[in-house]
Specification:
The chain is an all-alpha fold. It has eight helices and no strands. It starts with a helix and ends with a helix.
Length: about 220
């Protein structure tokens, strides 16, 4: 597991120096929030019903931009070939990159969620404590699936196009579960009322983490 910590530290240090991926994700999220704030009446019932879906679609596209920037940077510097040629378990490489991106996505949410709550009357302060594990599981799922798909795209000349095309259908069940769970948690409903969505979200995260760990060796050679 030492390779996992090495890759994780490398990803976070590189992002700290450049701040490229986080900057792209935060700026996009803030731009969408402001667009929604000026386009809709924040006090209306309809926007409150659609707010969880708008929120997670915003973070989905933010994640796509962040993944494109993160993996594109490695392609430009030919760093990816050097990374996978190192004598370490490629499953550790996958886990390190996926967890690092999940942390960057969580940082983006920490910055943008207060503004989402302010401009769109998002009842974050009165939400159930379950909102925290919902966000964490969703971030892990997005990062795991995104890292697998981005790793496949690095070996294709059309990788930048393949990422959103493949990522959206793969993440659609997770986005539905996350939106429904977020909506219920914001209404402070008991977890027993949406435990099916929570289990789907947990299963999605675990399955794709394990799948990525086992197949990253194969897809990195393609």
């Amino acid at each position: 597991m030492s390779a996992f910590w090495t890759v994780l530290g490398k990803e976070l240090r590189l992002e700290w120096r450049t701040r490229e991926s986080v900057a792209v994700m935060v700026i996009f999220s803030l731009a969408v929030i402001l667009l929604f704030a000026f386009a809709f009446n924040a006090g209306s019932t309809s926007i409150k019903l659609f707010a969880p879906g708008l929120l997670w679609m915003t973070y989905f596209f933010s994640a796509v931009l962040g993944l494109l920037r993160s993996f594109g940077r490695e392609r430009e510097m030919d760093a990816y070939d050097l990374l996978i040629s190192s004598p370490v378990d490629r499953g550790d490489i996958f886990l390190g990159k996926a967890l690092a991106f999940a942390l960057l996505l969580a940082l983006t949410q920490v910055v943008s969620l207060p503004l989402f709550s302010l401009f769109l009357d998002f009842p974050l302060a009165t939400a159930s404590p379950m909102i925290i594990p919902i966000f964490l599981l969703a971030d892990v799922a997005i990062a795991a699936v995104g890292t697998v798909v981005a790793g496949i795209g690095l070996r294709s000349p059309h990788g930048d196009t393949l990422l959103p095309v493949l990522l959206f259908p793969l993440l659609t069940p997770m986005l539905i579960a996350t939106t429904r769970s977020t909506s219920a948690a914001l209404a402070d409903r008991p977890a027993s009322e949406y435990d099916v969505w929570l289990m789907l979200l947990l299963t999605y995260s675990v399955v794709f983490l394990l799948l990525g760990t086992f197949i990253f060796d194969y897809i990195s050679e393609q």
